[in-house]
Amino acid sequence: MGVEAFLERSAERLPDKTAVVCGAERRSFREIDERANALARRLRDGGLQTGDRVAICLENSIDAVVAMFGVLKAGGAFFVVQPRTRPDGLRHLLRDSGAFGLVARPSMIAVVDVPVRTFAPDTSRDPRPVDCRHGDEDLAALIYTSGSTGAPKGVMLTHHNMTAAADAICSYLRLTDRDVLLNGLPLAFTYGLGQVTTAFRSAATLVLERSAAYPRALVDTMIRERITGLPIVPTLATQLLQLDLARFAFPDLRYITNAAAALPIATLKRLRRAFPSAQIFSMYGQTECQRISYLPPDQIDVRPASVGVPIPGTEAFVVDECGQRVPPGVVGELVVRGPHVMKGYWNQPATTARVLREGATSGDRLLYTGDLFHTDADGYLYFVSRTDDIIKSRGEKIAPRQIEDVIARLPGVADVAVYGVPDEILGEAVSAAVTLSAGATLTRDAIQRECLERLGPSFVPRTVVVEDRLPTTATGKVSRRALREVAVARAKVCA
Question: What global pTM score does this model have?
Answer without folding.
Answer: 0.86
